[in-house]
From TrEMBL, chain A:
GO terms for cellular component: NADH dehydrogenase complex; plasma membrane. The keyword Translocase applies. Its EC number is 7.1.1.-. It is a multi-pass membrane protein. Keywords: Cell membrane, Membrane, NAD, Quinone, Translocase, Transmembrane, Transmembrane helix, Transport. It catalyses: a quinone + NADH + 5 H(+)(in) = a quinol + NAD(+) + 4 H(+)(out). It comes from the Bacteria. Pfam families: Oxidored_q2. It comes from Niastella vici. Belongs to the complex I subunit 4L family. NDH-1 is composed of 14 different subunits. Subunits NuoA, H, J, K, L, M, N constitute the membrane sector of the complex. The gene is nuoK. This is NADH-quinone oxidoreductase subunit K. InterPro entries: NADH_UbQ_OxRdtase_chain4L/K, NUOK/Mnh_C1-like.
UniProtKB/TrEMBL annotation, chain B:
The chain crosses the membrane at residues 6-23, 30-49, 74-100, 112-129, 135-153, 165-185, 213-235, 247-270, 276-294, 306-324, 336-354, 374-392, 412-432, 467-486. Keywords: Membrane, Transmembrane, Transmembrane helix. This is NADH dehydrogenase. It comes from Niastella vici. Belongs to the complex I subunit 4 family. GO terms for biological process: ATP synthesis coupled electron transport; electron transport coupled proton transport. PANTHER family: NADH-UBIQUINONE OXIDOREDUCTASE CHAIN 4 (PTHR43507), PROTON-TRANSLOCATING NADH-QUINONE OXIDOREDUCTASE, CHAIN M (PTHR43507:SF4). Residues 129-416 form the NADH:quinone oxidoreductase/Mrp antiporter transmembrane domain. Pfam families: Proton_antipo_M (PF00361). GO terms for molecular function: NADH dehydrogenase (ubiquinone) activity; NADH dehydrogenase activity; ubiquinone binding. Its main location: membrane. It is a multi-pass membrane protein. It comes from the Bacteria. GO terms for cellular component: endomembrane system; membrane.
TrEMBL record, chain C:
The chain crosses the membrane at residues 6-24, 36-56, 96-117, 124-143, 149-168, 180-202, 222-249, 270-288, 300-321, 328-349, 369-387, 399-420, 440-464, 485-505, 517-538, 622-641. One of its GO terms (cellular component) is membrane. It comes from Niastella vici. Its main location: membrane. Residues 76-127 form the NADH-Ubiquinone oxidoreductase (complex I) chain 5 N-terminal domain. This is NADH dehydrogenase.
TrEMBL record, chain D:
The lineage of its organism: Bacteria, Pseudomonadati, Bacteroidota, Chitinophagia, Chitinophagales. GO terms for cellular component: endomembrane system; plasma membrane. The chain crosses the membrane at residues 6-24, 36-54, 99-117, 156-177, 197-219, 231-255, 261-281, 290-311, 317-338, 359-382, 394-414, 440-459. Keywords: Cell membrane, Membrane, NAD, Quinone, Translocase, Transmembrane, Transmembrane helix, Transport. This is NADH-quinone oxidoreductase subunit N. One of its GO terms (biological process) is ATP synthesis coupled electron transport. The gene is nuoN. NDH-1 is composed of 14 different subunits. Subunits NuoA, H, J, K, L, M, N constitute the membrane sector of the complex. NDH-1 shuttles electrons from NADH, via FMN and iron-sulfur (Fe-S) centers, to quinones in the respiratory chain. The immediate electron acceptor for the enzyme in this species is believed to be a menaquinone. Couples the redox reaction to proton translocation (for every two electrons transferred, four hydrogen ions are translocated across the cytoplasmic membrane), and thus conserves the redox energy in a proton gradient. NCBIfam families: NDH_I_N. InterPro entries: NADH-Q_OxRdtase_suN/2, ND/Mrp_TM. It is a multi-pass membrane protein. It is an enzyme of class 7 (translocase). Belongs to the complex I subunit 2 family.
Length: 104, 492, 642, 469
């Protein structure tokens, strides 16, 4: 039944991880950057689930972990968005390039 | 008596000072504290004398030993031998004198005396501690007051000098720390724990390889404090910017912290390494002596003259230590005491002149003997002591160093000794030039709105200055005329 | 018998005087200081004479030999077991003789100064310094220990510094004082190192022990010292030469003589005491003290001989050209000390008999009297007409008869005309030279001729030459100035008749020293010749001296400029030491060593400035660095640093 | 069992209770700021007091949550810090309209830290970590109007999300490699295989982010500068401290098998951190930013201590954190007061500070000396022991580097002291009257600075609880 080998899945998750990273590094819109981070987290989720299912099917702690990650990610996103909104109030923009007041 | 008093008394004095108000109260308090310290020091001396005469064989006397940090086997362990007592006496003398000369200090005088007292506490603690940790502790305690004293009350590029001094001394203590850590982890007591205890370390033998690694750290670290070439550059700037009392402390006491530390390291902690490196030590010491002396020749500011000459004189201390013969080491200790008193006196005299003439430039002063004979006399005595005139302490100390140094038959050591001897001629040259210009010759005061007329501005020393100078001079004479008590104290 | 009870007082009384007057003099005794000091010294002198009597005639001799006696001795500074500086009192013929000389001359000077220094505003200080000097000098001559002698050596140096610089607001005086101190200090450096060497090899600092150890027949220490060499010269020679260097410095021997003439800036009585009678002969005394050891090393003795001879000769001819009367006397002092030194050294050329030793000390003895007399006389003159310049003097014999008489006596004495004191001692010296080394003898002979010449040039210029332009305003001087002149004058006549070799022989064994009359003819003739020339040139005012000077021209100037020695030294100190060593040292310290320390600080700030771009403020960049760090760590620690 | 539960989770429960009280108050009544502050500080004091009584070691939820005397001590240290911070921020919060929220967020993070510290399991650890970091972002934004504040918050949330992303990736790998999330089981599966190393590096990055180890530190300065002072001090002391506690226990227990590897890593990182922190600190003019970099340098020294990997190391770390709480909070206390009352935060503003405010100057000076490690302040002892434990491994290159870096750090601390005492200033900060709570906080801090060092018992006690290998 398990026809798809683990490596494939890991490949997908790793790809996702780096896509997310790429997005984070390159996008200038804060919301997009947030989404990229979500991608990273999801790649981690895939890892957990995959490891759990393929390597340690007798326990479920991996799956649970991914559940926690999802919820926490949601919370994180909420706070982040709140902050971004507040940022927009003061900066009139959510472009990351606008926020370099503090440096050196 | 309990040695801890030497720490507690200044501490209490300092704390009380914080609650005094009004210049009068403050300085009265500070002075009485200092005097009590002096008395204490003498009591200590006599009790020590008794102990020894009744044949107490211990290396250190009046030991107190409390466990401080159990897991690290760090103790609060104090005790004294003759050397430390000599240094304690020196500290006591200089403290009283320093407080007296800064009697009329207006600016923030509470803080000033507070810091002075703290400084003396640091010195006492350093000289009595037998545990390397406490030693290090007090070594660093003594740094910050200097920084503040120079920075706040200093003249000229005060802040710069203060920073330089603090950083270089910190660097020194950083090196010391590495050395100490190294020693610590190379000690294996019977209990299996490591130890910081000087005496124990002296007993258990640190592996020679380890000594060779860590000796340079410890020695150079302490060397920074006692102006070991090339780490001496804080001395001129620091001394010349510092207020009078601070200069006296700096040159009189805190440079001795370094010398004392070097001595302990070289003789007690890592004798083998000391032998191994003695050539280098002597080389550096000789450079400091000669080159310090010649550099002094070119100085035009009285304080710079004395500062550089301190570099040269402290070279004798290191030379004595480096020679490692019993006599030479004794000479080094005597030189520490003597130089402490002498240079304090010198700075006091310079300070008095400066207070009246508002200049320290040799070129701008002249013939002050006419208007302020007492100060001039003090200046002359300090100068003569500095150039090693018999009957004053400088001669005794230097001669002892030379005799001790000459015991090393090695030609290069002999050469170093001869060069060191030669420096006394150079010393004579620069001292006499300064003296001949400032004290003798036609009366002259320039470069500061003061007219060279005898009168209120160019008055002679006040009572406080007289007492201060008198104290130091008594010390100098006591050593210079009757050195045997000091040698007995040190060697017994 | 036990001396210690009172002998200690001899040096200590002047010290007490110094302390008393030094601390309270200016306030309490501004007037009475002189009397006080003099009385104190009188007491010391009496004691000294009593001691001398006691030693020479009562108890000094033990079965025909004068034994050195250690009157007292305390350990002053213990270096190591057996090696210590002791403070003590050593009585032997030489030291007792010096004791007499020092106290007597010092007393005379004290008395003379009562008049001479009257009204000086630092009168008390002056007497304090005199006390200090007397104390130091006595300590020096009574030393039992080579380091003790060094200590008092330095002390006389400093008291001479203080007294030369007594008129501290005169730049010239200050300069002279500094010069004197520094030059002698330089010489003392040699002395110190010499001591270190001797001490190291002989293992003691005590004279007696040292001499006995080194002179013992099978002395291992001596073997070591002669055996081991440095730069091809035996350690013994090094040690003795260096010690002698100290002596030469104090005794103003060529080439370290430059300080003495300048030292005449001090008050004249001081010159009489320090720079004629006592301190300057310390060098001779030092060599005499270590004479047994010097005898072990011929080469150093020869060195001493030649140094002495050259100094004697050069100083004599320089003296002929000087016009400042005190400087003339200063150079004559150098010349006379030269005599004493080569008298010590010259026996090296023959089978050493003790004659040189005795002769030298004898000359030291007599010289002390007539030279101090000369100086005091000069002082009286200066006091009278307020100038040192010969040119402005003349015809004073009427105005100051006593001074004139005593000065004449002194001149005859120094010129070596019988029966005055100088004659006898000089004869002995010449005799010794004759026996040992003819070259030296002839130099000495010529020098004595020159001496006679310049002394009488001085004499004639002061007392005859042109008629006096000065009217007798305040007389020749009070009794307190006349008395010392008179006493010294008497001394200058009589002391020559003392059979010196009876009392101060080299080894304590009294021996007879006879000089055939025939031998004396030559010296006396030469001396008379010298006087004659002086008479011819200076008895009456005339042009001959100038013509003569012109005739010699360059040579004359060279001599008058003292062979440009001062210039040479100035060049060495200013150009070489200051510009060559001190300046660079100061520069290096300021810009290299200190620069290094500051440079570290500057470098740190530079670096921190240069890396600030890392903190770009752009959150994405942060993330990239973050990830970069992760990757770097992973790579490094997975692939390289296992 | 149930009793156990209440005793073992005492700290967490108390905090939760406080949080809910505040929530209810927020909804139910409209207390004035003043009384609210009094109430909260009172509660925090109670919390602190309660922390000391009736503790016992044990574990819950099959090893998810475990506690022992050391952990209790760590929690107490954090509670103490919390109290001090809240006292200090009183003068700032007085005129702020969202006091309750502030405390709710603050205490949430504290709660998160408690869970994190007693985590026996990566899941619990992760939850705790996030709970302690997400509210912080909100707090960083608490000066709602200020541009800087929101910029700081943004930078913090983005970076922390990214960091926790990497951390999670690492955790997932660890899970993949070991098949367990429980620390105690994990240790047996760890061997220095490349996968483990990679996973460890990711975890290390996660920790490094929180305690701002170079190169994971870049957010620190900006956030510190932008955030309100109270939050900054909280970030710099409490959150760092908590993560350090976990970090060392994870290193010493879970990754013990690959000690050799992480020793070298820490060696590199500590040197990097010390240098970077110092070199940046030299240049700073904003005092908060300056303190940020100085705290980075401090972390470097702490890492040196950790490399000692001995009982001495743990003890010194906990001891140092305690001291660090006092010293750094004392410094921030003064800064907070000044910025709250005058709004001035530049180093140059402090010129001539001593003339106008001697007391505050002394407090600040003592704090700075303690940070610089000058006796007799506690900082000296802290640093001494840290470096000593570092030296225990015999790596004297590291020790020498660290010791010599003390000179640089000394320089910039003295720079402030110089400004305070020696520099002239035409418009210095005017004379300030210190309100009650901040004053109390300062007294506590200074007392702590003096006592903690000189009284050897403190260290002995900590040491007796510590572990190592």
């Amino acid at each position: 039944m398990s026809s798809i080998p683990l490596t494939h899945i890991l490949f997908v998750s790793t790809a996702l991880f780096f896509i997310g990273m790429y997005g984070l590094f390159t996008r200038r819109n804060l919301i997009t950057m947030l989404m990229s981070i979500e991608l990273i987290l999801n790649s981690v989720n895939i890892n957990f689930v995959a490891f759990n299912k393929y390597l340690y099917p007798d326990k479920l702690n991996g799956v649970f972990f991914s559940l926690f990650i999802i919820t926490i990610a949601a919370a994180e996103a909420a706070v982040a968005i709140a902050i971004i909104i507040n940022l927009y109030r003061s900066h009139r923009s959510i472009d990351v390039e606008e926020t370099q007041e503090m440096k050196y | 008596m309990s040695l801890s008093l030497l720490i507690i008394l200044p501490l209490i004095t300092a704390l009380v000072l914080l609650f005094c108000n009004g210049a009068k109260q403050v300085r009265a308090m500070a002075l009485s504290g200092a005097v009590m310290q002096l008395v204490l020091a003498f009591i200590l001396l006599f009790e020590y004398w008794q102990q020894r005469t009744t044949g107490n064989p211990g290396i250190m006397l009046f030991e107190e030993d409390h466990l401080w940090f159990t897991p690290l086997n760090i103790h609060y362990h104090v005790g004294v031998d003759g050397i430390s007592i000599a240094m304690i006496l020196l500290t006591a003398f200089v403290t009283v004198a320093g407080i007296l000369v800064s009697w009329s200090m207006e600016k923030l005088n509470k803080e000033f005396f507070f810091l002075l007292t703290l400084l003396s506490m640091g010195a006492y603690g350093f000289f009595i501690s037998l545990d390397l940790f406490t030693l290090f502790f007090f070594l660093e305690v003594a740094v910050i007051p200097k920084f503040l004293l120079i920075g706040i009350w200093g003249s000229g590029r005060a802040a710069y000098s203060a920073m330089k001094l603090a950083l270089m001394l910190m660097g020194g203590s950083a090196l010391v720390f590495v050395g100490l850590a190294g020693i610590y982890f190379n000690t294996q007591t019977t209990g299996g724990t490591h130890t910081f205890d000087l005496l124990q370390i002296a007993q258990l033998h640190i592996p020679v390889e380890a000594q060779k690694i860590f000796f340079p750290f410890a020695f150079a670290g302490f060397g920074v404090f006692t102006a070991l070439f090339p780490f001496h550059t804080w001395v001129p700037d620091g001394h010349s910017s510092a207020p009078t009392a601070a200069s006296m402390f700096l040159a009189g006491i805190s440079m001795k912290l370094g010398g004392y530390g070097c001595l302990r390291v070289a003789t007690l902690l890592m004798p083998d390494a000391a032998h191994y490196y003695s050539g280098i030590i002597i080389l550096l010491a000789t450079i400091a002596i000669i080159y310090g002396a010649f550099a002094t020749m070119m100085q035009t500011d009285l304080k710079y003259i004395n500062a550089y000459s301190s570099v040269s004189h402290c070279g004798f201390v290191l030379l004595g230590i480096g020679m490692l013969t019993k006599t030479a080491v004794m000479g080094a200790v005597m030189q520490m005491v003597s130089h402490g008193l002498m240079t304090a006196l010198f700075f006091a005299a310079i300070g008095m002149l400066y207070d009246r003439t508002h200049t320290r430039q040799v070129a701008q002063l002249g013939g002050l003997l006419k208007v302020m004979p007492f100060i001039a006399a003090v200046f002359v005595i300090a100068g003569l002591c500095s150039l090693g005139l018999p009957g004053l302490s400088g001669f005794v100390a230097e001669v002892t160093v030379f005799m001790g140094a000459w015991q090393n038959a090695d030609t290069l050591y002999r050469l170093a000794t001869i060069l060191a001897c030669a420096s006394i001629v150079v010393t004579a040259v620069y001292i006499l030039r300064a003296m001949g210009k400032v004290i003798m010759g036609p009366l002259q005061v320039e470069g500061s709105g003061i007219t060279a007329q005898p009168g209120a501005l160019l008055a002679d020393a006040g009572w406080n200055e007289k007492i201060a100078a008198g104290l130091l001079i008594i010390g100098i004479l006591a050593i210079g005329i009757a050195p045997f008590w000091l040698t007995e104290l040190i060697t017994k | 018998m036990n001396y210690s009870s009172y002998i200690a007082l001899i040096p200590l009384l002047p010290l007490a005087g110094f302390v008393l007057l030094g601390l309270f003099g200016q306030r309490r005794f501004s007037k009475s200081a002189g009397i006080l000091g003099t009385l104190i010294l009188l007491a010391a002198t009496v004691l000294a004479f009593y001691t001398a009597y006691n030693y020479f005639f009562v108890s000094g001799k033990v079965n025909g030999v004068y034994q050195p006696v250690i009157a007292l001795q305390y350990t002053w500074l213990q270096f190591s077991p057996g090696m210590s500086i002791d403070m003590g009192i050593l009585l032997d013929p030489a030291s007792v003789m010096m004791l007499v000389v020092v106290t007597f001359v010092s007393l005379m000077v004290h008395v003379f100064s009562l008049g001479y220094m009257k009204g000086e505003n630092r009168f008390a200080t002056y007497y304090a310094f005199l006390g200090l000097f007397t104390f130091s000098m006595l300590g020096l001559v009574l030393s039992t220990n080579i380091f003790q002698i060094y200590i008092f050596w330095e002390l006389v140096g400093v008291s001479s510094f203080l007294l030369i610089g007594f008129y501290y607001d005169r730049p010239a005086a200050v300069a002279a004082a500094k010069k004197a101190f520094i030059v002698t200090r330089f010489a003392d450096l040699g002395f110190l190192i010499g001591i270190l060497i001797l001490a190291f090899y002989s293992g003691t600092l005590d004279f007696g022990t040292m001499i006995q150890r080194l002179t013992a027949g099978d002395s291992s220490q001596l073997a070591q010292m002669t055996g081991s060499t440095f730069l091809g010269i035996s350690i013994l020679s090094w040690a003795l030469t260096l010690v002698f260097m100290g002596g030469a410095g104090k005794s103003a021997m060529f080439p370290l003589h430059i300080w003495l003439p300048d030292a005449m800036e001090g008050p004249t009585p001081v010159s009489a005491l320090i720079h004629a009678a006592t301190m300057v002969v310390a060098g001779v005394y030092l060599v005499a003290r270590l004479y047994p050891i010097y005898q072990l090393n011929v080469s150093v003795l020869q060195l001493i001989t030649w140094v002495g001879a050259i100094s004697a000769f050069l100083a004599a001819i320089i003296a002929c050209t000087q016009t400042d009367i005190k400087r003339v006397l200063a150079y004559s002092t150098i010349s006379q000390i030269g005599y004493m030194l080569f008298a010590l050294g010259v026996p090296a050329y023959s089978i050493s008999s003790g004659t040189g030793y005795t002769a030298s000390l004898f000359h030291l003895f007599t010289h002390a009297f007539f030279k101090s007399l000369l100086f005091l006389g000069a002082g009286a003159v200066i006091h009278f007409i307020h100038t040192n310049e010969m040119g402005q003097m003349g015809g004073l014999r009427k105005l100051m008869p006593l001074t004139h008489l005593t000065f004449l006596i002194a001149c005859l004495a120094i010129a070596g005309i019988p029966p005055f004191a100088g004659f006898f001692s000089k004869e002995e010296i010449l005799m010794t030279a004759w026996q040992s080394n003819r070259t030296i003898y002839y130099i000495a002979l010529i020098t004595s001729g020159i001496t006679a010449f310049y002394m009488f040039r001085l004499y004639f210029c002061i007392f005859w030459n042109k008629p006096s332009t000065h009217h007798n305003d305040h007389g020749e001087g009070a009794l307190n100035m006349k008395l010392p002149l008179a006493l010294l004058g008497v001394a200058a006549v009589v002391v020559g008749f003392i059979p010196f070799s009876q009392y101060v022989p080299v080894d304590g064994r009294a021996k007879e020293m006879t000089i055939p009359i025939s031998f004396s003819i030559a010296p006396v003739a030469v001396a008379l010749a010298g006087i004659g020339i002086a008479w011819a040139l200076y008895y009456k005012e005339n042009q001959r001296p100038q013509q003569l000077a012109a005739a010699f021209g360059g040579l004359y100037n060279t001599i008058r400029r003292k062979f440009y020695f001062d210039e040479l030294y100035l060049f060495i100190t200013k150009k070489i030491i200051f510009n060559g060593i001190a300046k660079p040292a100061a520069w290096i310290d300021k810009y290299v060593v200190d620069g290094l320390m500051n440079g570290l600080g500057i470098a740190t700030t530079r670096v921190s400035e240069s890396i600030k771009a890392l903190q770009s403020g752009r959150v994405q960049a942060y993330a990239i660095y973050f990830f970069g760090g992760v990757i770097a760590l992973a790579v490094v620690f997975i692939y390289w640093w296992k | 069992m149930a009793g156990d539960f209440f005793i073992l989770m005492k700290h967490e429960l108390i905090i939760t209770v406080i949080i809910f009280t505040l929530l209810l108050l927020k909804i139910g009544s409209d207390l004035s700021n003043k009384s609210l502050l009094n109430l909260v500080n009172g509660l925090l004091l109670l919390n602190l007091a309660a922390g000391f009584i009736g503790n016992q070691p044990g574990m819950l939820f099959n090893e998810m949550f475990l506690t022992n005397p050391l952990i209790v001590l760590e929690k107490n240290i954090l509670s103490l810090g919390t109290l001090i911070v809240s006292l200090q921020s009183a003068s700032w919060l007085k005129q702020h309209e969202h006091v309750a929220e502030f405390y709710i967020l603050l205490l949430c993070t504290l709660l998160g830290m408690f869970f994190m510290i007693s985590a026996g399991n990566l899941l619990m650890f992760y939850v705790g970590l996030e709970l302690s970091s997400i509210p912080l972002a909100a707090m960083a934004n608490f000066d709602l109007g200020k541009r800087k504040s929101s910029e700081a918050a943004m930078k913090f949330i983005i970076s922390s999300a990214f960091a926790s992303g990497l951390l999670l990736f690492g955790i997932s790998l660890v899970y993949g490699a070991t098949g367990t999330l429980t620390f105690s089981e994990m240790a047996s599966h760890i061997n220095g295989s490349p996968l483990h190393i990679f996973a460890f590096v990711l975890l290390l990055a996660g920790f490094g982010f929180k305690i701002s180890v170079v190169p994971f530190h870049l957010w620190t300065a900006d956030v510190y500068e932008g955030a309100p002072v109270a939050v900054t001090s909280w970030l710099s002391v409490i959150s760092k401290g908590s993560v350090l506690f976990v970090f060392i226990s994870v290193l010493y227990t879970v990754f013990k098998p690959m000690a050799a590897t992480w020793y070298n890593m820490l060696f590199v990182l500590s040197v990097l951190t010390i240098f970077t922190g110092n070199l940046f600190a030299i240049r700073q003019n904003n005092i908060k930013r300056f303190l940020a970099f100085s705290s980075i340098a401090q972390i470097g020294f702490i890492l040196v201590g950790i490399t000692g990997s001995s009982q001495l190391g743990t003890a010194s770390l906990v001891y140092f954190v305690l001291i660090y709480v006092f010293s750094n909070l004392a410094a921030f206390g003064v800064v907070a007061l000044v910025s709250a009352l005058t709004g001035r935060e530049q180093v140059s503003d402090y010129k001539g500070f001593y003339k106008t405010n001697p007391v505050l100057s002394w407090v600040l000076t003592i704090a700075l000396f303690s940070l610089a490690g000058v006796p007799p302040t506690a900082g000296f002892f802290g640093k001494f022991f840290l470096l000593l434990s570092g030296a225990g491994k015999g790596n004297y290159v590291l020790i020498t580097i660290a010791a010599l870096n003390m000179i640089i750090s000394f320089y910039y601390y003295l720079r402030i002291v110089k400004a305070i005492f020696m520099d002239a200033n035409e418009q210095p900060i005017e004379r300030l009257t210190i309100p009650g709570y901040p004053k109390l906080a300062m007294i506590i801090c200074v007392a702590g600075i003096i006592v903690t060092g000189l009284v050897g018992y403190v260290y002995d006690y900590i040491h007796s609880l510590s572990f190592g290998f």
